[in-house]
Amino acid sequence: MQVATVKGDQPWCCTVYFVFDDDLNLYWISKPETRHSEEIHNHEKVAAAIPIKHTPGKSGVGIQLEGDATLVKDGSEIKRAIALYTKRYKTGKKWHDDFIAGKNKHGLYRIKPRLFVLFDEETFPKDPRKEWKVPLKK
Predict the structure, then answer these.
(1) DSSP letters spanning 68-128
(2) 46 near 69, Cβ under 8 Å?
(3) What does pTM read for this prediction?
(4) Is residue 127 classed exposed, middle or buried when 0-12, 13-18 and 19+ CB atoms within 10 A define those classes?
(5) Is residue 119 situated within a structural domain?
């Protein structure tokens, strides 16, 4: 996934390994001193893009989104998200346990999406852009 952040009037984009949960929150790990992590600390609004399928000369499929990003501090949320991360990327039990114990130099970051845009030329060749606003939870 590519994550776009901003500082002042200067955008920045980085690529991260990510996972998602049943509430469509997107999680990744990153060192707090990286440019995108520092920018998220100062400005939580972000955009992201997830390429799904792209073959030159053929139709493309991808998801773009906008939302609010933050460093996750809640212990139970960290455990849930790191379990997803460990399963997807097969990082192993030691890595998992070290992260939960705070022995990893990375932090866990989350995007709570506000808007998803599906771009799917394969399924919807005449109208490939489909937009979905995430309902606000009360």
Answers:
(1) EEEE---HHHHHHHHHHHHHHHT--HHHHHHHHTT-SS-EEEEEEEEEEEEEETTT-TTS-
(2) yes
(3) 0.93
(4) exposed
(5) yes
Q: Is 134 within a domain?
A: no
For β-strands 107-120 and 2-7, DSSP reports them as unpaired
What is the total count of domains within the chain?
1
Report pLDDT digits (tens) over 35-91.
999 999 999 999 999 999 988 888 899 999 999 999 999 999 999 999 999 999 999
Looking at the domain assignment, is residue 41 inside a domain? Answer: yes
Q: Is 133 helix (H, G, I), strand (E, B) or coil?
A: strand
**Backbone φ, ψ for residue 121 (5° rounding):** -70, -20
Q: Residue 109's domain is classified under what CATH number?
A: 2.30.110.10
Token readout for 15 is 């690529």
- The domain of 102 spans 2-126
Q: Is 3 within 8 Å of 16 (Cβ atoms)? A: yes
